[in-house]
Every structure is written in C-alpha cells, then in structure tokens.
C-alpha cells in the first residue's frame, strides 16, 4: 500500500527539492531567518556540522511528507490544482499545524514562531502539491 502505482518518484523528488528551496528562502536571514533565530535561540552557521545535520534531517522529513501527500493525491483521485491545494491544506490542518500549536501550549513557544513555522509548512505543502499535480506520469 505504501508504494502506490500512480505516484511518480521523480515527481516526489522534484516536489521535495522545490519545498526545500522554499525553506531556504523562507529561513534566509533577509526573510524570516534572523527573527526565527532570535525566537528560537538557535544559530547554525552555513557549512557547520549543525547546518549539515539539520539540512539532511529536513530533507528526509520533507521527502516523507511529500511522498505521503503524493500517495493521498493518488488514492483520492485528485485531478485539479485546486483539489490538490485543498488536500495539502487538509494534511497541514490535520498534521503539522496541531503539532506546531501544541508547542505554543506545552513548550511555551512564541506565537510568532508558530506563525513562521506553520505558514512555511503550509506553503511548502501547497508548492509540493502543485508540482505533483503538474508532474507527468
């Protein structure tokens, strides 16, 4: 069941890379990166072991969520960009958004950090769903 016939692995890889590129822009110091770093207290210099480990972990996590989204799109028979965006929103609403919101409640994470992270995840899923829907196969 995990390897659905209508899921294009190259499409998932490209969608993963597009989502990762979005994250590189989103968390760039000139966008939200500096503020995110202030809110989290995390500094991870480019090229450091911390940076490499975080990028690898992020790549694996993004691939898994993109593959799961592709499976949902395939088994639901999603045929339009609007429906794919709706499905991405449902995945976000049911999965990552509550997880981010629970950090606000239990870890006393700032609501601004929730807004940065949750909106990035939603936009990343939307980008991935658009790529998956446009990918041939």
Q: Any chance you could write out the topology, listing elements then pairs?
A:
Elements: H1 9-26, H2 29-40, H3 49-76, H4 81-106, H5 111-134
Helix pairs in contact: 1-3, 1-5, 3-5, 4-5
* Range of helix content: over 70%
Mean pLDDT: 92
pLDDT < 50 runs, ≥5 residues: none
Order of helices and strands: HHHHH
Biggest beta-sheet profile: none
* Class by alpha and beta content: mainly alpha
Dominant shape: globular
Radius of gyration: 16 Å
| Beta-strand residue fraction | under 5%
Distance between the termini: 18 Å
Number of helices: 5
Count of all domains: 1
What does this 3D model show about the protein?
The chain has one domain (9-134). 23% of the residues are buried. It has 137 residues and is mostly helical. The protein has helices at residues 9-26, 29-40, 49-76, 81-106, 111-134. The chain is built from five helices and no strands. Helix 1 crosses helix 3, helix 3 crosses helix 5 (111-134) and helix 4 runs antiparallel to helix 5. The longest helix is centred in the middle third of the chain and has 28 residues, at 49-76. The chain is globular.
